[in-house]
């Protein structure tokens, strides 16, 4: 029997569609990631199933829309915060649990953000080990000026930010134990790489799954001094350089150990960039993180598997992060357990042969609300948001000829509008819609505990740290 392939899934945080050289960036030099694309397939219509962290990550791991797994609402919030009662239900099957059952060593290094109560930690979702942060890097004890600036960034992007302070310290986890409170985030990428290399070396003779979940380029930006030199885009560009460096170290290690041909590498991002001037870019897409315009949910995606996946190819077929579970399971010689309903598809034929997408339609959910639906060409927008208010709309865009969603053509194609409205009704019936009040017949329960606590307690001894992008004269 042929050896099962190793799998490395690299997931960035808030990296935009236009932030990589191989996706058109003119300000970020990403030679190692660009080389990865040259050696594999670049997917140009690849979507996360949510425009923010928690639901997109839970969706990717389970192969399901967030609404199906109850990951679309957390006490009225769109993402999880420290000490909340909610998390990914331990009954869900994940990429890690499916691969572990197939004999893989499994490890997550980096950001989890699917629940910080003991029942919801990665080690209860198929991962043998975990080294990283339980949630976003801004969810710790920060100097107030830095967090206020971060809050302003969120407001500028259309979000209502959470309370600035106080948060308990940001914990660095090793397994289920807090090993540091408020770690030096400027060194986390390097530490993550060191642990990743250690994991790979330990499993040279056994198939492994490594989920490397970067903290970059989520704000606030904490970047090691090494990566600032040569950045043409300030601290944000330095963070992108750090991601590129980390990718290169892992690829070099695979080469050194003779594992490159036996290892699938997937590179993507959890949602679009905030896309403020001088920082992230979703060009040529419209919108940003937190939105269901293309810039919020269409993300970079690269897949390399030497000798199996063709090199230097780009496919524009509709694919999503929900497809990773069934596809990687097949490539590992296993499958999702019988009877488990997921929304992702096995996209082997798309990736290897450029076949037509298995999707008839794809739903753009934001929280519990269905905002838009698309097919292979057209996108129907149903809902617009203004400062917390929602407006029903009918806007149709041709994503082949108008990727930037600039021209509404709904009046020219009433048949397409009617067809996509019918698809939206089917999604509402199956998955629910908080805007219309549809409950959804295919939803599964989210994880909930009766009593929740934080991994670290708020006390007077917690250190205060300054965000990397905070101005020097603020102390």
Structure commentary:
With 475 residues, this protein is an alpha/beta fold. The chain has two domains: 6-353, Alkaline Phosphatase, subunit A; 362-443, Arylsulfatase, C-terminal domain. It is built from ten helices and 18 strands. The chain has helices at residues 31-38, 53-62, 95-101, 144-156, 188-202, 234-256, 294-297, 324-331, 348-353, 414-431, and strands at 6-12, 41-43, 46-47, 86-87, 105-110, 129-132, 171-174, 177-181, 208-213, 263-269, 301-304, 313-315, 319-320, 362-366, 369-374, 378-386, 389-398, 447-448. The strands form four sheets. A ten-stranded mixed β-sheet has the order 8-7-6-5-9-1-10-11-2-12, sandwiched between helices. Strands 14-15-16-17 form a four-stranded antiparallel β-sheet, with helices on one face. A hairpin with a 3-residue loop joins strand 15 (369-374) and strand 16 (378-386). Helix 5 (188-202) runs parallel beside helix 6. The radius of gyration is 21 Å and the shape is globular. The chain starts with 5 loop residues before the first strand and ends in a 27-residue tail after the last strand. Mean pLDDT is 92; it is low at 463-475.
């Amino acid at each position: 029997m042929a050896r099962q392939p190793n799998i490395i899934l690299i997931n960035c945080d808030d990296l935009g569609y236009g932030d990589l050289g191989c996706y058109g960036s003119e300000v970020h030099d990403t030679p190692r990631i660009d080389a990865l694309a040259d050696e594999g397939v670049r997917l140009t219509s690849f979507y996360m199933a949510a425009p923010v962290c928690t639901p997109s990550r839970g969706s990717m791991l389970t192969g399901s829309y967030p609404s199906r797994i109850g990951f679309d609402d957390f006490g009225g919030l769109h993402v999880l915060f420290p000490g909340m009662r909610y998390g990914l239900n331990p009954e869900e099957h994940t990429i890690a649990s499916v691969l572990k059952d197939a004999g893989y060593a499994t490890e997550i290094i980096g950001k989890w953000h699917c629940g910080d109560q003991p029942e919801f930690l990665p080690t209860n979702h198929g991962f043998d080990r975990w080294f990283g942060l339980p949630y976003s890097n801004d969810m710790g004890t920060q100097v107030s000026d830095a967090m206020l600036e971060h809050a302003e960034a969120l407001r500028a992007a259309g979000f209502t930010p959470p309370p600035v302070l106080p948060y308990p310290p940001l914990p660095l986890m090793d397994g289920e134990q807090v090993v540091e409170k408020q770690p030096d985030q400027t060194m986390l990428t390097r530490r993550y790489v060191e642990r990743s290399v250690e994991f790979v070396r330990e499993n040279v003779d056994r198939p492994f799954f490594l989920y490397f979940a970067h903290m970059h380029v989520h704000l606030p930006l904490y970047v090691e001094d090494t990566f600032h030199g040569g950045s043409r885009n300030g601290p944000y560009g330095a963070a992108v350089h750090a991601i590129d460096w980390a990718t290169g170290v892992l690829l070099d290690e695979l080469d050194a150990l003779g594992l490159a041909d036996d290892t699938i590498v997937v590179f993507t991002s959890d949602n679009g960039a905030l896309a403020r001037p001088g920082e992230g870019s979703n060009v040529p897409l419209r919108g940003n993180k937190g939105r269901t315009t293309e810039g919020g949910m269409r993300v970079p995606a690269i897949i390399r598997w030497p000798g199996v996946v063709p090199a230097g190819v780009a496919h524009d077929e509709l694919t999503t992060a929900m497809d990773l579970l069934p596809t990687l399971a097949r490539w590992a010689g296993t499958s999702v357990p019988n009877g488990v309903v997921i929304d992702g598809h096995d996209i082997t034929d798309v990736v290897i042969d450029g076949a037509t997408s298995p999707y008839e339609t794809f739903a753009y959910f934001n929280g519990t609300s269905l905002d838009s639906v698309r097919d292979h060409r057209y996108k129907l927008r149903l809902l617009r948001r203004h400062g917390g208010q929602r407006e029903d709309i009918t806007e149709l865009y041709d994503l082949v000829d108008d990727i930037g969603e600039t021209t509404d053509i709904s009046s020219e194609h009433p048949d397409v509008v009617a067809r996509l409205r019918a698809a939206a009704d089917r999604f509402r019936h199956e998955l629910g819609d908080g805007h219309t009040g549809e409950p959804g017949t295919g939803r599964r329960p989210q994880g909930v505990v009766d009593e929740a606590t934080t991994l670290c307690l708020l006390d007077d001894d917690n250190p205060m740290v300054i965000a990397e992008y905070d101005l020097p004269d603020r102390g």
